[in-house]
Amino acid sequence: MTALIEPITERLQLRQWRAEDKPAFAAMNADPRVMEFFPAPLTRKESDASVDRGRSHIEKYGWGFWALELREIGEFLGFVGIKNVSDALPFAPAVEIGWRLAHPYWGKGYAVEAARASLEVAFAVLQLREVVSFTALQNIRSMRVMERLGMQRDPQVFEHPQVPGESPLLRHCLYRLCADQWHRVNPA
Asked: Could you give the 3-state DSSP secondary structure of residue 55?
């Protein structure tokens, strides 16, 4: 196992997944508001498998899509982090930043705060040259988070290979942030 990285911010703990996260994560993944820009809400089995994949990625690399917890009370909020993208994506290989929070935690700045901590790991600890993010063209909220992080929209629009061809969510936009841009805005 690689050394585990678990970033901490003023309000948040990004940490390895625990078995007790699965029920809250499944409830979040069944919420149509949270899953609006995904092909469908996840079943409990699909949600649990996602936790298992996230845990395995973190065990292998020391980082990944971390479980996100409110430090003050230890409450599970969702996930935020960085991970290797699927080889099926047209811009692979790459490391993506992503997030998904339960609806009650939207609009409180948690996604941006945790994403900044994730980018600090990506650029200051892992010395990555670039991080990407992507979403369905309709997902304006996530695009705003990407822009608040300093990410730049790539002209490339692509069809996500895991989205059914007839879905209105098929077409995705791509955002990029290079290490030089990050370090200019966040000097050591």
From this structure: helix
**Could you read off the pLDDT of 132-154 as tens digits, one per residue?**
999 999 999 999 999 999 999 99
Q: What is the dihedral of CA 35, 6, 52, 2, to 10 degrees?
A: 140
Question: If we measure between CA atoms, which residue out of 159, 95, 168 comes closest to residue 138?
Answer: 168
What is the per-residue pLDDT across 74-110, written as a single tens digit (0 to 9) for each?
A: 999 999 999 999 999 999 999 999 999 999 999 999 9
Kindly report whether the global pTM for this prediction surpasses the value 0.90: yes
Give the Å distances, CA to CA, from 151 to 33, 41, 110, 137, 145: 25, 27, 17, 16, 9
Peptide bond into 93 cis (omega under 30): yes
CB 133 within 8 A of CB 115: no
